[in-house]
Amino acid sequence: MSATLSERVTPAGVEARGWGWRHAGRRRWAIDGLDLSVAPGERILLVGPSGGGKSTVLHALAGVNGGAEEGESVGELLVDGVEPADRRGRSGLVLQDPDSQVVLSRVGDDVAFGCENLGIERSEIWTRVREALDAVGLQLPLDHPTSRLSGGQKQRLALAGAIAMRPGLLLLDEPTANLDPEGVAEVRAAVSRVLDRTGATLVVVEHRVDVWHELVDRMVVLGREGRVIADGRPQDVLVAARAELLAAGVWVPGEPLEVGGARVVEPPAEGLLAVREATIGRAVGRPLRERVSLAIGAGTSTVLTGPNGAGKSTLALTLGGLIPPLAGRVVASAALAAGAGVDPGRWRSRELLSRIGTVFQEPEHQFVARTVRGELGVALRALGERNPASRIDPVLERLRLDHLAEANPFTLSGGEQRRLTVASVLVARPGVVILDEPTFGQDRLTWIELVRLVRELADDGVAVLSVTHDAAYQHALGDVRYTLGAETPAAGAAA
Questions:
Q1: 3-state secondary structure of 78
Q2: Domain boundaries, position 374
Q3: What secondary structure does DSSP assign to 94-136, as a single string?
Q4: 234 and 312 in one domain?
């Protein structure tokens, strides 16, 4: 008789002794001198600054950091007393981005994928698939298309795929970073159910302590060198190490942010850039939304909200001239177009680059250079800038990337990659900046710096549009707020 998720798995233990990891070609160690012991069945919340090595630890525990060609390590990092790469099925890893983890086109096949790679008997696999989907609360037919899932559903699908392998160690890398509030609640509840049923060990990385601190029994804080600076029960650490947490960029619940609130203004009638009665979608015949109208004004910070799957990113790409509307039109003002024509979709690359800068939701989709500095130089070379360092160096310093100037963009943490994509747009100094989920992966300190920078852009006359689920960001920068699907945007009103 096969085991079910109502029966407990054998939880895994973790031991790190002076462990460190450095990516190939990097001078700086992502982690250096980590000492950590996790008992079987413990639930750990791992927090610390953006770029502090938290994701590196999870990837290493899952055995997917790579071999000598990917980097070098020192010390010991063990799962159940052995190297993680020798026990890959013992750990289940769920990443930040829901879309990046969908492998196959049908729900059942996607959940079965990991089990198939472990060589589990076919009859056992489908028993596990059904039990895993039930455990995460995803009540869908096995042949349901994965392309029709919301962000919260995709993240629960990834969780189901992980637990179907019956891991003794569940590793979650900011699993709610890209989700709307409903999706966050869905994933957290699913994780709670899984842990209660299986008894697996949990290590979850998250900047937002308030999402997880009541579910875990221990909080471990890493400093900027990747070493433990606080460790204990969440309620104790939040009190005793409050100053250290704030210095490390941890989102301490109840701590006020050092930024002002949004200005309440009326939505512009015309705007610097606008979509008019548009039908949006990424393929002919498959519209996501119809009759959408939105305008953004110079010197104003606008936020666009709505549930996962509503088409916010598609609308942002349409407004930015990167995908055409299926119907309706995108209109640039004469001031923005400057003789290039009213339709941004018809502009040449160089014309678009100097007028509209767009930061995608997936940072790695924008990287084309081998170094961080080179990435920022791409736009400037295209614009014929003769002294690129005069623009590059201040932006690198402002976004806390100056120490990574010669690093490969693909070796950065998720939060660092996000800041790099923002920086690569800002150096071109466009009149319109479109940001898709600009704050995911950011610690408290880099979040504050990013918000201040966006406010300065708007104050300098730039039209800024941000797609976001971040309530604090909306409060700080939502001068005008649109909820996708609403008949009329509410100026400064909560979305």
A1: strand
A2: 273-483
A3: E-S-TGGG--SSBHHHHHHHHHHHTT--HHHHHHHHHHHHHHT
A4: no
